[in-house]
Design goal:
By secondary structure, the chain is of the alpha/beta class. It contains nine helices and six strands; from the N terminus they run αβαααβββαβααβαα. It has a four-stranded parallel beta sheet. Strand 3 and strand 4 form a beta hairpin. The N and C termini lie far apart (31 Å). The model has no long low-confidence stretch (mean pLDDT 95).
Length: 189
């Protein structure tokens, strides 16, 4: 059974998922761009397509990726911290289930090229992959994005709230987005 099929069949946290199990991830051994988000939202749970919502639209705008490019699993791996929709909580969705990353990430990352660029989208991905920077705020991690290159590039989650955050942090659009687009383009060329 392929790793993709194993993930699709995963039921490790089924008892904690009020809307049922539907693991959502996309990857291949040739994908040099890895995007690690938090967990699928309700729209992605329904469609089964990663980043198939307004947050995905904003992320594509930030990265300069078209839908065709983003969903080309030979070039772009889309691997959330939690593979299934965790359900709603007050103020948004529940956090990603903690079982997924330890269960699957190592195996997925072992398949990917070593020279990949990994976009760490949101605090959950950053806390997991940048443990030394956990004490920093998400804003401070994103502001210090150069410290994590060439392997990682931390980004805020592109939810609707990010527009408010971007207004308070104009350096993100002026400094981070041009570098993000350049590195994504260079990685995919």
């Amino acid at each position: 059974m392929s790793l993709q099929a194993e993930i699709a069949a995963c039921r490790i946290c089924a008892e904690h998922l009020p809307h049922g199990v539907r693991p959502v991830a996309s990857f291949s051994p040739t994908a040099r761009l890895l995007i690690i988000g938090q967990a699928p939202g309700s729209k992605v749970h329904e469609s089964g397509i990663p980043w198939d919502d307004a947050s995905g639209d904003r992320l594509r705008e930030w990265t300069g990726l078209s839908k065709v490019q983003m969903y080309d699993h030979a070039k772009v791996a889309l691997v959330p911290m939690g593979f299934c929709y965790p359900g709603k909580a007050s103020g948004g969705d529940k956090p990603p289930r903690p079982e997924c990353a330890p269960q699957w990430h190592g195996r997925v990352l072992d398949l990917l090229p070593d020279d990949r660029l990994t976009l760490l989208v949101g605090t959950y991905a950053q806390a997991h992959y940048l443990p030394a920077a956990r004490k920093l705020s998400m804003t401070d991690r994103v502001r210090a994005f150069r410290d994590y290159l060439p392997r990682f590039l931390p980004l805020p989650h592109p939810a609707w709230r990010s527009t408010i955050w971007m207004r308070k942090n104009p350096w993100f659009e002026a400094e981070v987005l041009p570098e993000l687009r350049r590195r994504v383009s260079d990685t995919l060329d």
